[in-house]
Amino acid sequence: PPNGFLRPEGSPLTVIAHRGASAAAPENTLVAQEIARKGGADWIENDVQPSKDGIPFVLHDGTVDRTTDGTGNIRDLTAAQIKALDAGSWFAPQYAGERVPTLAEQLADLRTRGGNLLLEIKGRHTKDEVAKIVQVIRDQQMTGRVFVQSFEVDALRYTYELAPELPLGLLRSSLDADPVAIARELHLTAYNPDGNALLAKPEIVAPLHAAGVAVMAWTMDSASLWQRLERIGVDGVITNRPSELVGWNSAF
Ligand code: G3P
Ligand code: CA
């Protein structure tokens, strides 16, 4: 099928809110998601990892130390222990009482209030752990509004085996010699490189587009960078400042 994530020439960049509106509110919380939605972001980006008892939670780091009032590896904490943590006070007092959302809670919020999710499977996952993520997406009836991305090739392979209907993006810190080949091998809808690596080698965009693969760059927060990405034909931009990118798009 044609790739709906490809940006027609002259149309605005797709705005993807990195961990929600994470410059304005505590990352990966429902309030960061709400601010991003109100600011006009097209997609919310998150990071998903399981609790000790196998519940997919929305958290970036391998530990809860930086973004909550607790300590420890997320994989060593039960869902009940994670739910008891304050995920807002570290950012600003006004966000005291924010919780680490489960993936199910985040998707339910998007389903009822509107919005799409760029779901990052963070770190290595077993096939059973990926199956749990797929089950949550299906239970929440959000298959048509979720895009899965990961640095982990195995996680993308498992997702394709379990749910070939979900669009897939490969995150890369440095560029592959032949991005089209890996896109074909992994059934990618998007190739999602570090934005600075991409700006150093913009000639990879055209062959990806010719192969029907979109390009989404991360994590770019200034108008000068957005302009350079727009000029080289990037489709979507993952940013900590989604409402500013929405404004830049409309002035463009
Ligand atoms: O969406 C891409 C970006 O989020 C990858 O880096 O560390 O923020 O998950 P990180
Ligand atoms: Ca991420």
From TrEMBL:
The highest taxon in the source lineage is Bacteria
**Phylogenetic classification of the source organism:** Bacteria, Bacillati, Actinomycetota, Actinomycetes, Micromonosporales
Q: Name the species this protein comes from.
A: Micromonospora globbae
Q: Which protein are we looking at? A: Glycerophosphodiester phosphodiesterase family protein
> Which residues belong to any copy of the GP-PDE domain?
13-249
